[in-house]
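The instructor's notes for this session suggest beginning with a concrete chain rather than abstract definitions. Hand out the sequence below and ask the class to guess, before any prediction is shown, which regions might be ordered.
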Amino acid sequence: MFFITEDWAFLSHRLPLARACRDLGWEVVIAAHVTDRADIIRREGFKLEPLPLDRGGVHPWREAKALFALAFALRRQRPDILHCVAMKPVLYGNLVARLVGPKVTVSALAGMGYAFTAGSIRVRLLRRLLSALLRLLLRRPGHRVIVQNEDDRDLLLAIGAASPGDLTLIAGSGVDLRALPALPPPGAAKVVFALIARMLGDKGVMEAVAAIALVRAGGCDAELWLVGAPDPHNPSSIDEATLRAWEARGGVRWLGHRSDILEIWRDAHVALLPSYREGMPKALLEAAACARPIITTDVVGCRQVIENGVEGFIVPAREVDGLAHAMRRLAEDPVLRARMGEAARKRAEAKFGEDRVVAAHLSIYRALLKEEPCAA
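After discussion, reveal the predicted structure:
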């Protein structure tokens, strides 16, 4: 059973793994809040357990309902493996698993989230609470934690939420290198920087908008595409009125949510993600697969995607001038863009292929079920 916040998140990040389990003859159940993807999930041959889960909710009664619904789903399905994805499912899934008792559990933390990024007093208190809960819930037999980068691994070890033998690092959810082939550089003269993410302040969207204004003011014919929707569940969400106002000023296009990622990279020259913290951003892995150079920040999860000066540039987070400088260099140098794009594709092939990621997960499952050994 995959326990994940939203049905769309399962389809975007866990579908290849679920298909691999299905193709091995395993029964696969998806427990998630269901939006409009139920038919897609069922057509794949998976069972679906809709849950009243609010990804950003804190209302006690609604959260209690979600916990009870998960408990009943686990009692009905009795999975051998419960795979929890993201912070709230990891906390809730391991809490309920202590009572209902699947044979083994896997907790995948794709980044440590808002509570481990911001620095207000309220968020620091939340961080302490989450650290205590993780220590309580994750340290038990028959359980393995998956993280996507070395920084999150070291953080979990530092707060005592896991031991080295219970932790496995898998670099992201992988990218389909066949579906996203290397693309030739776009032919348009205007250089397009594409930022593909939820429209959140924590993704560095505001810095990107300020940076493109500096790049254009310096005489570069460039444009910023913002590809993604706001996320009202997240405290740093940017509202639609702000996005429209940026468009009206010029130099910025807001495209909203798009699923045709290959078409975006046919027309965009450079991938941009000046985020404050990530797990392993799939948007950058997809850009690398399509042979696009990358500009990102020197933060957890992002700095692991590229080597500075090889596949792109790594710049300080929350700093507009450095971001604009890197953007200007790539905007003015098509040869550099092409060279870095080719290097990005090679790195994607060597490190981030979907097949490699699926195989690593299956190895963990089998090890936990005592079918074969698995190295941490």
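Then share the key points. The chain has two domains: 2-174+354-368, 191-351. Residues 337 and 374 are 40 Å apart (CA to CA).
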